[in-house]
């Protein structure tokens, strides 16, 4: 039998025509930063005297499609070049088997001519003889160039699969002072690109397939050498982690198969196991660092307030996605006096009944308001008048636009003494308080008189107040409980009256006054300290859409509180298949931070248990260790559809017994019996027909919370003592008796025992 040579089965997969489905160079940054990088490319301009030569691979291994992308990259770079005979000159040379000059550097003197001729370059084909093209430049220099009297930049666009040696000619070019950029195309061999590129190589190796990114990378490197400049000084070149990928053919052992071979000297045929392999293309990843220019974005300054989301629209434009309560406001800003076009006349009682102390308190309040409300962009104008028997306009409306000057003028207003003739002061304020040249019609800002008094009037106020309101004056009153009824008569509504109990309470009225001046919704318990926790039903019975409606409702409620560590603290717990603390009481110190965090609370799904959630709040949220403040009113608001509330009665009672108020907001066409049992002795239950109707019950919820905030507080409920310490009330305060092994005001430190 004839002998047979050893057979080896080889399977070859030809994938060279496959286009990559993923980027071959990927910068690991956020989508927002990618936008900044793209936009920054259009802000870099190169106008120095420099010669730029594009050496473009036109071989068959690149292919016509990638060749066209190489030309597109060159055109994009030319957009940033100040092309002219005395500034930037551009030339192009294509290579395949041999180099071919497309146009020398001195051919065209305008960017339009250069780009038009670059686009008209025809694909050449042939082998990838990169080394021959480099040797051509070593012999002849830059065609049409200025003989190294200006910086020379060579931009090699290739797949890095040369069929000759490139290291030696590339090194010689760089030694002559030529700056070489190696720009990959198709499936580049990055090792060869690194050999071609100048140092530092990370800044001189790019990928033409991502045109805007590659253009930015090239111009960023040139800007560091003063060849190019960026339009904005705030733009900076920064390093970013990135990955470079390529497609390589590798041989892989697949297995063994029977094969036959002849034996020398005999006619026998031997059977043996022979290995067989396959060839396949694999994507190889090369970690790298990419240097890119990024300019500050429109959203970097966080222009959207009160939990609004900034959406960039270009480098210098943006729009705000606002919570419902601020949907119509620029930058989601509240309608405070800086955004409200008003003329305000503060009318200060300066009579003997008010006393000097009362007058000084009123002046201090006006100063607080001015400091809090007026700024460079304010559209509110302020004036101040005092009265006793007669009205004296001390600071005409709008006389001072500079806040320090206005404050100094307030200091100089003297106390008058005498009778309290509030009615006469209102009549004179309406006639001459806003000047004789007051504007009329639509051009006139809203006019407001803010009356501050602690003394009942000694003349009639009803008639003058009615005539003042008839002149379209908004009358607001600020005073003590002794003049509440009179102020309500003057202003025409209890909603336009602010009552204070003492000096500190007066100063807390500033924000509420701002709201009334610009007709904001009535504020919540702005001056009351409160620890407030919302518990949201995030179970499958509620669903993601209704959960989003609850989030919107909580955001709107939070807008009504002065969120900071000294006044109102807000926490949020969500529950479904599990209980999760979205954020604790001491997590966020501002209202804007709370609004953002509410928007980010997760929908959980699963089967919810209101009882488990309330126990979690009792044990792990409403505690001193987790930010609850001793001596501060505490409230929990539960929003639920009612399913899973059957086990909540005992936890609700436990919270209430521990000094925590609980309001249950039940949503659904029929109020479930399980929810009715949670109302408690003060009927702390609110029924809402649908989740869409929640917004109509916001005022009722705020009223309940504010009512609870005014209730007396037991300093030992919940107990501020940790580690099972005992809280003992003592002389209007409390103290903690600690268990063995603990010490400190709240039993939070381990005691040190001496060895016996």
Automatic annotation (TrEMBL):
Main location: secreted
CDD domains linked: EGF, EGF_CA
Keywords per UniProt: Disulfide bond, EGF-like domain, Glycoprotein, Repeat, Secreted, Signal
Gene Ontology BP annotations: calcium-independent cell-matrix adhesion; regulation of insulin receptor signaling pathway
Full protein name: von Willebrand factor A domain-containing protein 2
UniProt cross-references to Pfam families, sorted A to Z: EGF (PF00008), VWA (PF00092)
Organism: Panthera leo (Lion)
Example of a GO MF term: calcium ion binding
Domain of life: Eukaryota
Signal peptide region: 1-20
A GO term from the CC aspect: basement membrane
Record's subunit section: Forms monomers and multimers.
InterPro entries linked: ECM_Assembly_Org, EGF, EGF-like_Ca-bd_dom, VWF_A, vWFA_dom_sf
Keyword Secreted attached: yes
Domain VWFA: 51-222, 343-517, 531-705
